[in-house]
Amino acid sequence: MIEHEVLDTGLDDGEDDDFDLEEVYDSELPEGRYLDRELSWLAFNQRVLELAEDPSLPVLERANFLAIFGSNLDEFFMVRVAGLRRRIMTGLAIPTNVGRAPQDVLADISAEAHRLQLRHADVWTNQVKPALAEAGIDFLTWADVTEPERADLYRYFQEQVFPVLTPLAVDPAHPFPYISGLSLNLAIRIRNARTGRQEFARLKVPPMLPRFVRVEDESNRIRYLPLEDLIANNLDDLFPGMEILDHHTFRLTRNEDVEVEEDETENLIQALEAELLRRRFGPPIRLEITEDIDDITLNLLIDEMSITEQQVYRLPGPLDLRGLFDLGRIDRPELRYPPHVPVTTLGFQPADPHGHADLFAAIRKGDVLVHHPYEPFATSVQAFLEQAAKDPHVLAIKQTLYRTSGDSPIVQALIDAAEAGKQVLALVEVKARFDEANNISWARKLEKAGVHVVYGLVGLKTHAKLALVVREEEGALVSYAHIGTGNYNPKTSRIYEDFGLFTIDAQVGRDLIRLFNELSGYAIEKKFKRLLVAPRHLRKGLTRLIDTERRNALAGLPSRIRIKVNSMVDEQIIDALYRASQAGVTVEIWVRGICSLKPGVPGMSENITVRSILGRYLEHSRIFSFANNGDVQVYIGSADMMHRNLDRRIEALVRVTADTHITRLEGLFTLAMSDTVSSWHLQPDGEWVRHSTTDSGKPFIDLQDRTMQNIMRRRRARVVRR
C-alpha cells in the first residue's frame, strides 16, 4: 500500500484547473430539491418486485425476481441500515441530502421496508406460487404430504439431514447461542417429560442442504417441501423424551459492513482478514419471524439479541425466499425468457470458422466496441487476455480486478503470462464488498505465480475497469487497451449489461501507462487526454461538460445531456443538471437504481426526464453524452454519480471517438427513452410509474430484446456487404 493524497479535481488537458462552477451561477436552487437516497433504493427494489408481479413474464423468471428482491434487501440491511445505526450509536453525523433527523430516517426506512416485505410475501403466496402450480410445480406443506411420501421424506431426513443438525439448548448451563447472519433457524419450546420444566432450544437449518426438498410421486409434477418444514415435523428425533410444545422459524440479519482504518495499519490484507472475522459477529439489524410466533418465544428472542420492536419483521412464511434461486435447476425452458444467443462482434470473428480470431489485428484496423452480454465476453475480453498471455511479442500486461473468481480464465491468463516471462501487474481491489475473502485468496494465487500484485491506494477503492497490453511490433512498443463499464468476471458478464472499448489509440495507451504508474508506484499524474479519472479529474470534468451545455443553450446553440448510470445521488452533479435544465437544456437520465434528482419540477427541472429499465439483464453500463454544439462527445466507464465514486474511488471514463460507435450508443439511448419502450418514469415526488403496455393492452417494446435483434440485424447486414 502507498500513501495517497487526494488532490483537487480538475481536467488535465491544459484547461483552467481553477474552474469553479458556482461562480457562473446567478440564482439559488430551492431547498428540498433532493429525493432521499435510502427510500429511492427501496423504490428500486419495489421495481424488481413489480417484475415478479407481472403475469406476462415467464413464471420461473418471476420466481427469480422474488429471490433477487430478497437478496437485494438483505444487502441493504447489512450495509445501508447497519451503517445508519452504527452512526447513530457512535454519535456520527448521518450523511443525508434531505435534512432529516437520524431517527426519522430509520423510521421511514423501517416503515417502507415492512410494507415491501409484506408485499413480497403476498406476491409469493397469492401470485407466483399459484402460477407455478398451474405450470406443474408445487410447493407443499407437511399437511399436503401423504403417508407413503412422509415415509420417503423421513428416510431422506434420517440419511441426509439428521446427521448435520445441531440442537442447542438454552438453560443455566447453556447460554443463548450465537445466531449467524442470514441463517434460517427454528426456535423450539419443549417440556421435560420427567420434571415438567419448560426449555428453549435453537436449531439452525443447514445452509449446505437444498432449501426445498423434492417430493417424488408418480405424476409428472415437480413438488417441493421447505427444508425447515421437514425438520420441524421430525423434531421428536432430536429431542427424545421431550414434549414439543411449539416451534417457529426466525432469521436474523447482522451488520456485515467492513470498516478498516487504512491509514492506521501497516498491512491492509492482515487488517482486512481480521475485520472479516469480526464481521460474523456484527450487531443484529433485523429479525424476521413468522406471523404465528407466540409472545414467549418472541420476547425471548428480542431480549437475548438486544433488538427493538422496530427491527422485528413479522411475515407469513416461508422466510428467506432466496431459496427460489434453486429453481434455476428446473429443466423447463418454456417457463423462462426465450434464449438470446450472443453473437461475436464482427471484428473479432475468425476468418476460418474453425480457427481463432487475431484480436490484435482487428484492433489495429480501428477501435472495437463490444456490448455484453449480447456480444460474448469470452470471445472479446477473455480472448484478448488469453491471446496476450500466449503471444511471444507481448511484453507486459497490466490490469485492474475488482470482482472476479479464483477459477476465472482471466486470472488463469494472467498466471500463464507471468509464467511465460511477461511483466504482469494486477491491481486487485481487496475491499470490494462481500468479495473481500475471495479476492484475497486468488490475489495470493497470482502472487505465487509471479504476478506483481498491488492492493490499491490508501483511502481509495480501485473501481476502474482497465486492461493494458504492451506489444512489440516492428521494433516499436504498441499499447492495446480495454476500458470497460463492468467487472472482468466471465460469470456475471452473462447477465450484466456492459460496454467495453478496445483501442490502439496512442493517447489512450499513454493515459493508461501513466495511470497504472500512479496506481503501482509513487507517481502523481495530472495529464490525461482521452480519460477522465476520479478522484482528481472526473467530477470537475463532468461539471465542465454539463456547464458547456448550459452555456450553449443560453446562446441558442444545440444542447443536450444524456447520462446512463446505476445511481444518481451526487448533489453537485444534480445541481449542475438542474441549472442546465433551467437554461433550457434537454436532460435525459437513464438510471437503474437510486436517483435523488427530482425531474419535472417547474422552474428547476422541467426539462429533465428520468427513466429506469429492468429486465432479464442487469443494466450496468455507464454512458455520458453531450451535444457540444453538434460535435457530440460520448464517454463510457465505471463511475456512478455518487460521492464515493467521484471522491473516494479510482474511476475512469474514456471518450468514444468513432462515429459508428457514437451513433450506436446514441441509438441505444434514444430507444431507451422512447415512450414505446417498457420502462419506469420517475415523478417529482419520487414515485416510479411503470409504463409497460399501451392503452389497449399491447405490450411496449422490451429494450433488451430489441437490442439483441438490432445486433443480429447489424451482423447480417455486414455479412451481406462482405
TrEMBL record:
Transmembrane segments: none annotated. Residues 359-523, 531-695 form the Polyphosphate kinase C-terminal domain. SUPFAM superfamilies: Phospholipase D/nuclease, PHP14-like, PPK N-terminal domain-like. ATP binds at residues 72, 496, 592, 620. Its EC number is 2.7.4.1. Keywords: ATP-binding, Kinase, Magnesium, Metal-binding, Nucleotide-binding, Phosphoprotein, Transferase. It comes from the Bacteria. It catalyses: [phosphate](n) + ATP = [phosphate](n+1) + ADP. The active site is at residue 463. An intermediate of this reaction is the autophosphorylated ppk in which a phosphate is covalently linked to a histidine residue through a N-P bond. One of its GO terms (molecular function) is kinase activity. Mg(2+) binds at residues 403, 433. Its cofactor is Mg(2+). The keyword Cytoplasm does not apply. Residues 34-139 form the Polyphosphate kinase N-terminal domain. Residues 150-327 form the Polyphosphate kinase middle domain. Catalyzes the reversible transfer of the terminal phosphate of ATP to form a long-chain polyphosphate (polyP). HAMAP family: Polyphosphate_kinase. Belongs to the polyphosphate kinase 1 (PPK1) family. This is Polyphosphate kinase.
